[in-house]
């Protein structure tokens, strides 16, 4: 069972999800960001094609950017790209927040961070085209760019 994509319906499923979530959160503690991304990909049974360069989403996260972050080639991560990785992986909010922390970030009370938290909390399953459209309408920079 993959808590990253499972909706719990029965008491047994809830118990399994809670146990798995507890284990995943415990394992993420102290992990560096690249290792945490690889771990979540393994736990969620993701392949890189599942989270990057999606033909149905022209603004999707680029393979090149994702690989650079996953392989630790980016020495100074960008919080917005880390949030984009969480969105691309369709992580539940609690795991998104944990992954953001592994990248060395926390959220402040700024307008920008409030918007990033709103994205993590409310945009699971939305395309980057939809999210970027909302951000542009609200005068924010998009999370992803077609040229990245």
Structure write-up:
This protein is 56% helix and 0% strand. It has helices spanning 11-28, 33-43, 48-51, 63-70, 79-88, 93-102, 111-122, 128-137. The chain has one domain.
Topology:
Blueprint: H1 11-28, H2 33-43, H3 48-51, H4 63-70, H5 79-88, H6 93-102, H7 111-122, H8 128-137
Please report the number of helical segments: 8
Number of β-strand runs: 0
Approximate shape: globular
Uncertain segments are: none
Largest sheet: none
Instruction: Give Rg in angstroms.
Output: 15 Å
Order of SSEs, N→C? HHHHHHHH
Strand content: under 5%
Question: Averaged pLDDT, please?
Answer: 90
- The CA-CA distance between the termini, in Å, is 33 Å
Q: In the residues, how many domains can be counted?
A: 1
Q: Classify the helix fraction into a percent range.
A: 55-70%
What oligomeric state is this? single chain
Question: Which structural class best describes the helix and strand composition?
Answer: mainly alpha
Please give a quick description of this structure.
The chain has 148 residues and is mainly alpha-helical. Helix content is 56%, strand content 0%. It contains eight helices and no strands.
Keywords:
148 residues; mainly alpha; 8 helices; 56% helix; globular
């Amino acid at each position: 069972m993959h808590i990253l994509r499972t909706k719990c319906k029965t008491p047994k499923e809830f118990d399994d999800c809670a146990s798995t979530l507890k284990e995943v959160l415990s394992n993420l503690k102290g992990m560096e960001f690249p290792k945490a991304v690889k771990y979540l990909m393994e736990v969620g049974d993701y392949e890189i094609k599942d989270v990057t360069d999606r033909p149905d989403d022209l603004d999707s996260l680029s393979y090149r950017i994702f690989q650079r972050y996953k392989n630790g080639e980016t020495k100074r991560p960008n919080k917005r790209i880390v949030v984009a990785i969480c969105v691309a992986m369709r992580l539940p909010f609690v795991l998104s927040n944990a992954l953001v922390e592994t990248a060395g970030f926390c959220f402040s009370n700024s307008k920008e961070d409030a918007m990033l938290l709103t994205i993590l909390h409310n945009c699971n399953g939305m395309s980057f085209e939809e999210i970027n459209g909302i951000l542009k309408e609200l005068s924010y920079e998009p999370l992803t760019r077609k040229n990245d």
